[in-house]
């Protein structure tokens, strides 16, 4: 008898919670949606400004690395034209030092740029989460997934809210 009461209770609880969950969602609303936050970031005015700064840093880094490459080329030409073994040994050491400098600088510059990009994106995500949550609540959406072409193969365009959130974000900023 207790098993029947428990089973009935569980069934009633399920029906009650299902009814509440479906009552929260307006008719015709979608239960889940997807957003490509990276696209929102890149298309927003704030994101465009941040990307311009990052691109400037990339250009400056390329110029700095190009200078080192030119120095490497110059040392290599001197090495090729050296006539004594002592000159070749000294120039070979200079080449190796310059090569190491290039590798170290390029690694550091790449890390700096990656860090700039990651920090800018993370700050943007923190800024846009309240907007996404309000949109989700207003639209009666239960779950919003972060869309990434690396993780999701295809999304129904009706479930993609990227453009809507971008429009709301741009209006607020």
Q: Decide which structural class fits the backbone.
A: mainly alpha
The span between the termini is 63 Å
Total number of strands: 2
Low-pLDDT ranges: 15-23
Which range best describes the helical content: under 10%, 10-25%, 25-40%, 40-55%, 55-70% or over 70%?
A: over 70%
Number of helices: 5
What does this 3D model show about the protein?
The chain has a single domain (30-172), classed as 2-Layer Sandwich (Protein Binding, DinI Protein, Chain A). Helix content is 77%, strand content 5%. It contains 5 helices and 2 strands; from the N terminus they run H-E-H-H-H-E-H. Strands 1-2 form a two-stranded parallel ribbon. The longest helix is centred in the middle third of the chain and has 55 residues, at 85-139. The model is unreliable at 15-23 (pLDDT under 50).
Quick summary of this structure?
The protein is mainly alpha-helical and 173 residues long. It is built from five helices and two strands, in the order αβαααβα.
Supply the key terms.
173 residues; mainly alpha; Protein Binding, DinI Protein, Chain A; two-stranded parallel ribbon; 2 strands; 5% strand
Task: Chart the SSEs and their pairings.
Layout lengths: L1 H23 L7 E4 L1 H7 L1 H37 L3 H55 L3 E4 L15 H11 L1
Parallel strand pairs: 1-2
Helix pairs in contact: 2-3, 2-5, 3-4
């Amino acid at each position: 008898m207790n098993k029947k009461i428990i089973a009935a209770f569980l069934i009633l609880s399920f029906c009650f919670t299902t009814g509440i969950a479906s009552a929260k969602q307006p008719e015709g609303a979608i239960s889940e949606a997807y957003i490509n936050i990276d696209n929102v970031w890149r298309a927003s005015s704030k994101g465009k400004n941040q990307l311009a700064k990052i691109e400037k840093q990339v250009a400056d880094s390329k110029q700095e690395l190009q200078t080192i490459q030119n120095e490497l080329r110059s040392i290599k030409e001197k090495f090729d034209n050296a006539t004594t073994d002592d000159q070749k040994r000294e120039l070979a050491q200079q080449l190796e030092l310059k090569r190491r400098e290039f590798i170290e600088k390029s690694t550091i510059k790449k890390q700096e740029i990656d860090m700039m990009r990651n920090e800018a994106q993370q700050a943007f995500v923190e800024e846009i989460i309240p907007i996404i949550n309000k949109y989700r609540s207003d639209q009666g959406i239960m779950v919003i997934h972060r869309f990434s072409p690396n993780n999701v193969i295809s999304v129904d365009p009706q479930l993609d809210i990227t453009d809507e959130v971008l429009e709301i974000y741009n209006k607020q900023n």
